[in-house]
Design brief:
Blueprint: H1 3-30, H2 35-47, H3 49-90, H4 103-149, E1 154-159, E2 164-167, H5 169-175, E3 178-180, E4 188-190, H6 207-222, E5 229-234, E6 240-251, E7 254-264, H7 265-305, H8 311-335, E8 378-385, E9 395-404, E10 407-408, E11 414-417, H9 426-432, H10 436-439, H11 445-456, E12 460-463, H12 466-475, H13 477-480, E13 488-490, H14 491-498, H15 507-514, H16 524-544, H17 550-558
Helix pairs in contact: 1-3, 3-4, 7-8, 14-16, 15-16
Length: 567
């Protein structure tokens, strides 16, 4: 219940209690009068009823006006100051309190803002020192990222639950593929399996092969043999991959994860063939050089024995030149591949292909509703549509980001335009800026929605005013056969719970309170990114309200007035 309702409920209950007391005292006092006196008083009340009613109405009217002034100059500002002070102390040190209230409330806000200035200066000083300390760690991180990025094999590391902790670009190329969504579309989008941090290894490698490999590793471990398993799979580009799997040991007897290295069988064969060719040419080149020297000596003898070059001499010279050129070009062709790739250490940011904190995620088996919010994986998404009527309008864009281990995975984004097969109104174009010519040739909703479902599988969905987006998906169920059954959280509901004294809970209003810079407003991906940042800022605030688990958040959301809205 918000602060307005709480206040007026308190007033109503207080008024009822006061009336009850007055009626009780009046009844006792009334009994002290004689019947004649009671009759006389009733006649006086009847004669002056208009004045009495007017006085009572004026009293209650003035009382209500006074209470309303107290509400907006003292009560609500007090709640707002408390909420915004919490923002300053937790998620946005740069936030400052701005209220329209009584002089005392404004003075209190000014004092808090002055203290916030000092707190921010101290926090900035500490942050600068921490930043200096992190530079050395960042250099080591950059070395690790560079080595992983340039490994010739595809590398994937997962924890014991199968969640991917690390992978490199080679693994991404071997295990995922870009291809048209169907044969009628020329636009390309990632339609193969998804490889990303926090995703299950079973999304790119058949779970039965993983289970068989783990069983083999366990058997060899118990037999005292080297715990390694080999198997082959079909890559995303229909190539044959050889996979080697071995355990990661935290202690001598405790497995915390597994390393999988992937090789393209044909690439390996080609590499060995090239190496063998170089070795053969290195041997044969010496013999060819000696043959060339002998032929050149024969030519010199022919030149000295004849005054002019014969046709035979011309032919020999031409063949010697051709052989020499053939040897050089052939050797150069087979030698033009690096045995060792140079590694470049750059200060620029690299893709986030690893997060070792994922080793500490809770084991599977815990009901998702009872898991802590900070431990869950989220797909934060938004849609752009041709209008605001789910039954008649169409989705023209879907954008999404993933939150894993409390961080936005910047290299695992989803952004797709969708051909609505209908006109797009100028009113909607003014909002999202997507023109009809941008949608021609793009996938239709029946091709795009299954792709988004694969992207979001095994995650909690998060959106802003997400009931509208979910209704748009629901309307398309008969066409696509796609139904989203995972839990859903709405940042608009959560904002109303966390900041009940604030009237506005739009993305812009919340971002201003939390100090979030919104980029690409009213684009699906831009709004999804802003919503993800808002949600991450909400997590510590929810924890302060004893909202720790997914079930806690869902139950709290149901109490919001926005939960009553239906599309």
């Amino acid at each position: 219940m918000d602060s307005h309702k709480k206040f007026w409920l308190f007033v109503l209950l207080s008024a009822c209690a006061s009336v009850a007391v007055v009626v009780t005292l009046g009844s006792l006092f009334w009994r002290q009068f004689s019947p004649a006196e009671q009759h006389q008083m009733l006649e006086m009340v009847h004669r002056h009823m208009v004045y009495i009613v007017a006085i009572i109405a004026m009293f209650f009217g003035g009382w209500i006006v006074w209470l309303d002034a107290v509400l907006y100059t003292y009560v609500l500002p007090t709640v707002q100051i408390a909420d915004e002070t919490l923002l300053i102390l937790t998620v946005n040190p740069g936030h400052r309190i701005k209220i329209d209230a009584s002089r005392d409330m404004k003075r209190l806000a000014d004092l808090i803002n002055e203290g916030a200035d000092r707190y921010e200066a101290m926090a900035r000083s500490v942050e600068e020192r921490v930043k200096e300390a992190r530079e050395a760690l960042e250099f080591e991180r950059n070395i690790l990222a560079s080595v992983i990025e340039h490994l010739p094999e595809g590398l994937v590391i997962c924890n014991t639950a199968g969640d991917i902790v690390l992978y490199n670009q080679k693994a991404q190329r071997l295990l995922t593929v870009r291809e048209p969504l169907d044969h009628t579309r020329s636009i390309e989008s990632l339609s193969g399996p998804f490889l990303g941090l926090g995703r299950h290894i079973g999304s790119v490698i058949a779970p039965e092969k993983i289970d068989a490999a783990i069983s083999e590793i366990t058997r060899k471990w118990n037999d005292g043999k080297e715990p390694v398993a080999f198997f082959s799979i079909q890559g995303a580009a229909d190539n044959v991959l050889s996979v080697e799997m071995m355990p990661i040991l935290a202690r001598r007897d405790h497995i915390v994860g597994y390393i999988l290295t992937c090789h393209d069988v044909m690439e390996s064969v080609s590499l060995e063939a090239r190496k063998t060719a170089i070795q053969l040419f290195s041997v044969f080149r010496n013999d060819l050089d000696r043959l060339k020297t002998s032929v050149e000596a024969l030519l010199n003898v022919c030149r000295t024995a004849a005054n002019h070059k014969s046709d035979l001499v011309h032919a020999i010279e031409a063949n010697v030149s051709r052989i020499d050129g053939l040897i050089e070009s052939t050797f150069r062709e087979y030698a033009e591949f690096p045995d060792v790739c140079p590694i470049t250490l750059s200060t620029e940011s690299r893709p986030e292909f690893y997060d070792f904190d994922l080793f500490n995620r809770p084991e599977p088996g815990i009901d998702i509703g009872n898991q802590l919010l900070v431990n869950l994986v989220y797909t934060v998404f938004d849609t752009e549509t041709t209008g605001l009527n789910p039954t008649s309008d169409e989705i023209i864009s879907i954008g999404a980001v993933r939150i894993v281990n409390g961080k936005i995975v910047q290299d695992d984004l989803f952004s797709m335009l969708i051909d609505p097969k209908r006109e797009v109104s100028e009113a909607s174009i003014r909002v999202h800026g997507i023109r009809p010519e941008m949608l021609k040739g793009q996938p239709t909703i029946d091709a795009a929605l299954p792709h988004f479902q694969r992207y979001a599988e095994n995650t909690v969905l998060v959106g802003h005013n997400v009931a509208f987006d979910m209704r748009m998906f629901q309307v398309k169920e008969p066409l696509t056969g796609i139904r989203f059954t995972q839990p859903v959280l709405d940042t608009m509901f959560l904002s109303a719970i966390l900041h009940p004294a604030h009237r506005y809970h739009s993305i812009e209003a919340i971002s201003n309170r939390l100090g979030i810079c919104v980029r690409g407003r009213h684009t699906a991906l831009g709004d999804a990114m802003a919503t993800a940042e808002i949600f991450l800022k909400f997590l510590p605030l929810l924890a302060r309200m004893n909202i720790f688990t997914l079930n806690d958040a869902i139950e709290a959301s149901k109490k919001s007035d926005y939960a009553k809205v239906r599309y």
